[in-house]
Design a protein that fits this description.
Shape: globular
Strand order of the largest sheet: 1-2-3-7-6
Oligomer: single chain
Helix content: 40-55%
CATH class: Alpha Beta
Number of helices: 11
CATH superfamily: Thiamin diphosphate (ThDP)-binding fold, Pyr/PP domains
Bound molecules: thiamine diphosphate
Structural class: alpha/beta
Number of strands: 7
Amino acid sequence: MLRRMVTIRRFEEEVKRLYRAGEITGAIHLYIGQEAVAVGACAALRDDDVVTSTHRPHGHCIAKVWDLKRTMAEMMGRATGLSGGFGGSMHQFCRAKGFLGGNGIVGGGIGIAAGAAFAAQYRGTSQVTVCFFSDGASNQGVLQECLNVAALWSLPLILLCENNRYAATTPVGKSTSRADIAPRAEPFGLPWAICDGNDVLDVHRAVAAAVARARRGRGATFIEAKTYRAEPHCGIIADGRDPAELAAWRSPTHDPILRFESRLLEDGILSAEGLQAVHEAVEADLREAVEFARRSPWPALAAASREGSAVHA
Ligand SMILES: Cc1ncc(C[n+]2csc(CCOP(=O)(O)OP(=O)(O)O)c2C)c(N)n1
C-alpha cells in the first residue's frame, strides 16, 4: 500500500514537471493528497473487479491497473499507452484490469458503474464495481438515479465519494447543503459509511466491508472518504486557496503518506532502511516509465479508426 501511494505521489509530481516542460499536453488534474483513497479501496479488490474514475484518474488508474509504463505513455500520447495514445490524462482505460476509464464528464462514471455492476450481477460473475466520484459530482442527478436502481436491484456496487472539500475551485460548503454526503443513501434504504480518506487503513476497512457485503449478494454501499486535494484544480495554475490551508494539509498531521509512514515506523512494521528502499524502488520504476514513454512511437493515424485499433481488444 505504501509503495503504491508513494508511486502515485511521485507520478503526479513527475507529470507536473513534464507538463511544464511541454512533454505532456492537454488538461491535467492532479490527485496529490488523495492517494490513500485510491490505494485503500483498490487493495480490497480482485483484478477482475471493476472501477470507474473521474477527470482526476491517474491515482485510480495506478492503484487498479498497476502499469506505470503504459499509464505514463498514455499521458505522453504514445501508441503504447493504455488507450493507444488517444485518451491522454482523462481517458486512461484498461478493460483487462477492470478499469473502465477516467471521464471528462463530472458524474459520468456513476451511470457506467451502475451498468457494470448490473452486468456482473446478470452474468453471475461475483465481480464488484467501485465508483470513484467527488463532492461536486455528488450534486449531479445521475447519482440519485443510480442510488435508486442500486437499492432496487441490490447491485454489487460501491459508490465512493471522495470529499476533497472543493469542486474545482468552489468550497464544498458553497455547493453542497450538508457537510456529510453519504447519508443521502438513507432514503434509498442503502447502508452508508464515512471514513478518514487520509488514512489508507481506514479506507481499506470501509471498502473491504462493503466489498464483502456486495459479493454475498447483499447489494450496494455508499462510502464517503473525507480527504483534501493538495493541488490546484487543473494544470499547474494556482487556484487562489489560502497557502496556510494548503500547508496544513501537507503537514505530517494530515498528509496521507507521511501519516502512514510514521505509523509503520512507530509500529515497527517498517525500518528506516525499509522506508528508503520503498522510495528508491519507486524512483527506479518512475525513471523506467518515463524512458519507456519517451522511446515509444506516436500512434499511427490508421489506429484512430475502430478497424485499425487493437488497444481495447
Ligand atoms: C457535466 C460536467 N459539468 C461541468 C464540468 C466542468 N467541471 C470540470 S471539473 C468540475 C468540478 C468537479 O468537482 P468535483 O466533482 O468535486 O471534483 P474535483 O475536481 O474537486 O476533484 C467541473 C464543474 C464537467 N467537466 N462536466
